[in-house]
Amino acid sequence: MYHLDIQGNIHAFGILLLEIISGKPPFCKDKGCLIDWAKDYLELPEVMSHIVDLELKHFSNDDLKVICEVICLCIHPDFSKQPSMKEISLMLESRIDTSLSIELKTSLAWAELALSS
């Protein structure tokens, strides 16, 4: 029973990631189930960016590939093929650049300066 709860949580994490990058709910009347809609985009690098919410203006295609790979692993119908949360964390931490770009740091510094005055 405990094992199924963990696998269910991993599946739910994949759906949550998909909701975050797509800006879509897990189910909607127009498109149906989010996973079914996204399957056509998740595994094909040439159309992967079609899954991204238009509000997400700055993202790296390399980071998107990693996130889509993690989503695919998490929502895999065969629970035995799902990674552990530790493996998911390692994939995300080791393959996605989370450092702030110099441009963003500069703009944040100006914003902070404007707020303090």
Topology of this structure?
Layout: H1 2-22, E1 27-28, E2 32-33, H2 34-42, H3 61-74, H4 85-95, H5 102-116
Antiparallel strand pairs: 1-2
Helix pairs in contact: 1-3, 3-4
Short descriptors:
globular; 117 residues; mainly alpha; two-stranded antiparallel ribbon
Sheet-strand content, in percent, reads under 5%
Rg over CA atoms: 17 Å
In what order do the strands lie side by side in the largest sheet? 1-2
Helical segment tally?
5
The beta-strand count equals 2
What is the typical, i.e. mean, pLDDT? 83
Largest sheet data: 2 strands, antiparallel
Residue share in helices? 55-70%
Q: Which class best fits the helix and strand makeup?
A: mainly alpha
Choose one word for the global shape. Answer: globular
- The first-to-last residue Cα distance is 57 Å
Spans of at least 5 consecutive residues whose pLDDT stays below 50 are none
Order of helices and strands: HEEHHHH
